[in-house]
Amino acid sequence: MALPDLDTSVGHSFGLEIDGVVIKQISEVSGLKLEQDVIELKQNTADGKFVIKKLPGRYKAGEVTLTRGLTGDNSFEKWVKDSRFGKMGAARKGGAIIVYDYEGQALKRYKLTNAWPKSLEIGSLKAGDTSVLTEKLVITYENLEVE
Predict the structure, then answer these.
(1) Do strands 143-146 and 50-59 pair parallel, antiparallel, or not at all (unpaired)?
(2) Rounded alpha-carbon distances, angstroms, from residue 118 to 49, 86, 135
């Protein structure tokens, strides 16, 4: 469903798709960023004035953090295990972060190239606490494209 020109989107829910498997229980996504180096070209003009021009350089790899409530699903742990034991051929995967609207339709996809898990953090365990346990997965990627 396309949005009208002046409307903005509300991220109702998020998902991670890796190798065709979609995990929809993501509650927070942070760190999605397209970035590139800046090259400064310093030169003199024909009339002798000093100028600095800024030119686009190489794109930068990035990291994204996904947070979800702790569940029985162990897909994050399996993926982390592959990278920890040096099985980078199995750990590097293509995937996407998907933003869904309130009807569950995909609004936007952020395609990740050669993504692999850098870390997995389990929220603090505290006796008597009633807050939801979470797990945070930090994924590093080589390229990000918006689809």
Answers:
(1) unpaired
(2) 48, 12, 13
